[in-house]
Amino acid sequence: MAEDTGNVADTAADETKKTADFAANQAKSGADQAANFAKDAADRMRDAGGQAQTAFQERIVEPAKRAGEALRQGGQKVAENNQQIGVKMIDQAEQNTREAFAAMRNAAQAKDLSEVMRVQGDYLREQSQRSMAQAREIGELIVSFGRDAVGAMRGEGGQRTGGE
Is the pLDDT of residue 4 over 70? Predict the structure, then answer.
């Protein structure tokens, strides 16, 4: 009978071991499934984050960079144009000064008062015409430069220079 008790105990031990192995395998399988689910969720979140970053880059960052570059180019063009206008105004002032000195020389060499009055009248008439032409020239430069600056900010390639 002792032998039967030993067999029953062995059988019970085997059954307990099988049940424990089965439970361990089930627990391991459940843990593996949970780990795979978590890994898949993390992969999907990482992919979504990458897609969001790409979309942000394409829709926000790149257009902002292009706008900043266009503004920089427009500002640079305005600075160049201001320099050209300044040089043109100095050239005009130099021409006006030469004309004024020429008129003063002619008046100083005049033989009588009527000739002085004629020289002065001629100078004033010519200076008035010259001033209007110079103002028109500066105005045309400003308009042309304004178009260039706006075109540069819009990314257009139309290049105009003074006098064209």
Answer: no
